[in-house]
Specification:
Layout (H helix, E strand, L loop, with lengths): L11 E4 L5 E3 L13 E9 L6 E9 L2 E8 L3 E8 L2 E4 L3 E2 L6 E9 L2 E6 L2 E7 L10 E3 L9 E11 L28 E5 L13
Antiparallel strand pairs: 1-13, 2-12, 3-9, 3-13, 4-5, 4-12, 5-6, 6-7, 6-8, 9-10, 10-11, 13-14
Length: 203
């Protein structure tokens, strides 16, 4: 979408009606296993009715993980693997149509959610979980469709990028870290650069 973007002049526009990005399953999406992990992105809601999914994996109704905005509650990161539930709680609801930077940082066994650089919730839980399904951006399996834009989505494995309040990034990420070679911790980096109405893009 060239009408709205945080960086680069374009973003991924999702219209709230079965629009989403799907990426094949990969071990790099296993946020629930041991080790540090970071998910961060910029999001702009067009409307705020109902829960809005940002990113996650769903196998079935009792096996999934997601990062979303829960209407009337707030941002939430949750893992459920049968009877195992890891949940940061819900705080810091997005109720406007401004751009916001949101992040989930896992450091050791502690999961922390940040909104615009401020820690809003956390939980410590050493249990683990792994799921085999596509990574979905902007929807959970058949629901919570995001009506809005996503820009500069990054998934980092083996690193907790923040441990306290921080200033959100003011420019697009460079996956090489400026060295010209791929930074090994960055497993997915979507600048959302592409043509209007495109349904497939390489990023």
């Amino acid at each position: 979408d060239t009408a709205q973007s945080k960086f680069g002049g374009t973003s991924a526009y999702l219209d709230g009606s079965d629009d989403y990005l799907s990426i094949p399953d990969n071990a790099d999406w296993d946020v629930g296993l041991t080790g540090d992990y970071t998910i961060d992105l910029w999001v702009k809601h067009t409307q705020n009715g109902g829960d809005k999914a940002y990113v996650g994996q769903t196998v079935d109704v009792t096996h999934y993980w997601y990062f979303h905005n829960s209407q009337g509650n707030g941002l939430q990161f949750r893992i459920q693997d049968g009877t195992t539930v890891i949940d940061t709680g819900v705080f810091g609801e997005i109720t406007d149509t401004d751009w916001h930077h949101v992040a989930m940082v896992k450091s050791g066994t502690t999961y922390t959610v940040y909104k615009d650089g401020n820690s809003i919730s956390s939980v410590t839980d050493g249990r683990t979980a792994s799921f085999a399904s596509n990574l979905l951006i902007g929807e959970l399996q058949g629901g919570q469709d995001l009506d809005g834009q996503i820009d500069e989505l990054r998934i980092s494995k083996g690193i907790a990028r923040w441990s306290s309040s921080f200033t959100p990034p003011a420019a697009p990420y460079d996956s090489s870290g400026g060295s010209g070679t791929q930074e090994t911790n960055t497993k997915l980096l979507l600048h959302m650069d592409g043509a209007d109405s495109a349904t497939v893009f390489t990023d």
